[in-house]
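Hey, quick one: can you model this chain's 3D structure?
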Amino acid sequence: MVLKSKLHAILFMAPALVFIMTFLVVPIFRTVYFSFHRWFHFSPNYTFIGLENYITLLDDRIMRIAVSNTIVMMIGVFVFQIVLALILAVCVDSIKRGKKFFRTVYFIPIIIAATAIGLMFSLAYNYHHGLLNQILNFLGRESQLWLSRDRALFMMLIPVFWQFVGFYFVVFLAGITKIPEDIYESAVLDGITPIKKALFITVPLLKDMIIANTILVIAGSLRVFDMVFMITGGGPMNASELMSSYMHRVAFMNFNTGYASAIAIVMLLFAVILTSVLRFGASRFED
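Sure thing. Here's the predicted structure for all 287 residues.
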């Protein structure tokens, strides 16, 4: 009977296992293989060169910029998505009416395609006819170059932060609703203020959710590509380049697919190490 139940479980898991092996595990191993080769234009011919691609990465100035920008984005997504979403969830939970309205409004950006959001913001940043410069001109101010070398990265990150704040807001709001009302009622009877209630009751009880969301949002920031592609393309002068956008440019514009494979593996290792460190820190924090 036990064997029969296990057989059913294996049969149900088999399609998912085949899918994961075909579209995840096998491509990863092939990418590792090609990262040790000189390979251009997706040609059937490639040459083994060992660690040469990885050694080249160490001296690649653009790769250093991309790594630095990616780290800046990770810090930004933590502050503007996790922290802001938590603050919004606490504020909305404290109101008596309108929770469904705010939940819907904050969730709307998530259901919009990232490419559409990127196009919308790129039009808003346009120097000649963009919305931001139109507003400045209406106020009697001169037009600004919003996607200059100094501003491009941060202007590109604004829609990235904005799009997913609503998702984590809804997650935190759902977590708050699961907190027993008895705890809040006892605290109110003791004369607790709303700020202390949020800091000493709500946030500690959402600890596990905060840790899980932090790991998700930081690891997910490595997958950001469409916003960069639509708004800045990694420019100007690589000022807004991320590891994902640089890998795409090397693979599909420079057609240096062997070198792009090495970048992809570095991204994968970066994500695995970062996620492992965060999980280890979270487990230590829980202990």
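One thing worth noting: The chain has a mean pLDDT of 85.
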